[in-house]
Write a structure and sequence with these properties.
five-stranded parallel sheet, two-stranded parallel ribbon, Arc Repressor Mutant, subunit A, Rossmann fold, 50% helix, 14% strand
């Protein structure tokens, strides 16, 4: 059983399929501790409304009419960096998965996910996790096993030893509380370090940070301080 959500978790939905959108709204409204901030059928409408609503979580379709869910995610994260975006989609290819994650999404579910899986994903992102359907997770692992060319342009990035330790734990998929427990820190201290890591790596989410860690072979320069 999932632990209770924080006192109030506001969830917005961006989905152009009417029946699925309404189904997700009923699911959210039927989840204790959750309210639906709004249901939007296109990216343009959501981009105008969501910043004022400031939801905690968005369930986001990738293939929207007009502006894609990936572009919308990137633009919303620029305004609301703390926003948790879970992609809900039929697409399973590597390129779309990583494009969504690089845009700032922190989770990725297939549209055939069960109501329980969607609820678990909402709980997970609020706890600092990065939920994915099992099939999506397998594809991410497959992509990680493929040879990759290290990304250049990070020569000037200097992480402290503590920041490097936390980044390693992020890449392992640990939530903030798990990182805090393993390193003997408070959750708030972990959050402060994460903010600095994001600033130094020029990323907007823990998933993006983990991907950049992987792309640099897990060896960012370490500042001895």
């Amino acid at each position: 059983m999932n632990p209770p959500l924080p006192a109030h978790t506001s969830v917005a939905i961006v989905e152009d399929h009417e029946a699925l959108g309404k189904g997700l709204r009923r699911l959210v409204e039927g989840t204790p501790g959750c309210t639906c901030a709004g249901l939007f059928t296109n990216g343009e409408e959501a981009l105008k409304a969501v910043p004022a609503l400031q939801p905690d979580v968005i369930l986001m379709d990738i293939n929207l009419p007009g502006m894609s869910g990936i572009e919308l995610t990137s633009r919303l994260k620029a305004h609301l960096p703390a926003l948790h975006v879970i992609m809900v989609t039929v697409y399973r290819d590597h390129d779309r998965i990583f494009a969504a994650l690089k845009a700032g999404a922190c989770g990725y579910l297939l549209k055939r996910s069960t109501p329980a899986e969607v609820r678990e994903a909402i709980h997970a992102v609020r706890a600092g996790g990065a939920p994915m359907s099992a099939e999506i997770a397998r594809r991410v692992v497959e992509a990680f096993h493929q040879p990759s060319t290290p990304v250049t342009g990070l020569d000037d990035v200097k992480l402290s030893r503590r920041e490097t330790e936390i980044l390693e734990k992020i890449a392992q998929g640990l939530a903030n509380k798990e990182i805090a427990d393993r390193l003997g820190l408070s959750v708030e201290t972990v959050r402060v370090h994460l903010k600095r890591i994001y600033e130094k790596l020029h990323v907007r989410s823990r998933t993006e940070a983990a991907l950049k860690y992987r792309d640099t072979a897990g060896r960012p320069p370490v500042d001895p301080g």
